[in-house]
Amino acid sequence: xxxxxxxxxxxxxxxxxxxxxxxxxxxxxxxxxxxxxxxxxxxxxxxxxxxxxxxxxxxxxxxxxxxxxxxxxxxxxxxxxxxxxxxxxxxxxxxxxxxxxxxxxxxxxx
Length: 110
Description:
elongated, mainly alpha, 5 helices
């Protein structure tokens, strides 16, 4: 709502504050995604163990084998890795591109 209000008022200080707040939020989200991606790869064993543990009752009852559960968990981790890389890298690239264009324009105005 603030962005629409700033544009409607055509107030340069409001638009600038909205822009800088948006940059801050973009940096925060990018940092969180980067941390999540690092944790995903550094904690692979813990993630696979937690996945397998969630199927312990099914293995105990005999409805699933331990090998099937291990295969499923490994495949699920691998697929989520592709999703993390497929969404995280383009978003980070778009943020860097936007930031570099803004910095280049700021430098030209000075």
